Amino acid sequence: MQDSSDRVANANVLLPARIPGGTNVPHSSPRLIVTSPTGGAGRTTLALHLAVALGAAGHRTLLVDLDPNNGVAHALGRGDRTFRGVADVLALDVAPSQVIVETRSPNLALLLRGRLDPIDVAQFESLLSERGRLSSMLGLVEAQYDRIVIDAPSGVRSLVCAALAEGTHALVALCADARSVRALSQTLRVIESVQKRDNPTLALAGIVLTRVDLERASSQSAVGSMWEGFDCVFESTIPEREIIAKAWESGVPVGHLGAEGAFAARRFAALAREVEDVIAPANQPVEHHVDNPRPFF
Where do the structural domains in the chain lie, given as residue ranges? Predict the structure, then answer.
């Protein structure tokens, strides 16, 4: 019997051009695509904690991991084959609803990358990049959620374009260093291109400065240049903190790590409020509410 990684390699035969039941109607929920110009920007950390904060604010939130590196599962202390997810939907024609993981964090569910052999990553990206494939998958479940946060890969690869083509808003995680600032123009160019070619309703929600360390002159310079040069940079920044690294080691969101973790989580809650002001549908009031953390799973 083939496992999911074997089937991904044969998915062009196993799957129809579109997943049955997909919709072509306008998105019922905001879809926030989180990407970054470079790796190491803390993009997955941002996507995870933003989703936690949106859920705590009362929004039914689905966090989708499209990164072949399986970052969300790793951030939660799980291995590559712990959960089924997107790869299993592609390979086995399993309904997305069957692989969504409910958490004990308020209003938060996960659609993880799933079980994927590293040698099949190129095929995984190719399948997800097919027009309509991701939209069909999300269309089967999005009516159950108020917000969908998608952790897309970094850089300018085809899977980033595919995710942006199905999003309502793009959120850029930008590491506060010179290299990332120089690479930002590439990501903004891709967003602009997808908006013109594939998704005219796509909007840039904004840029989040991550791994900020104001004790380093290079980080200070990057923050200053971004705030001076762009009007779409959020006021809330994500600092370089040991407690965030400890959260990865512990396999839990940072808010579960005592008083210091709760303090760090407030930054993500503040960012979530800023993001909500941008993405909230005009007919839906913005709620600002944070619950005490509960066990995640």
Answer: 28-279
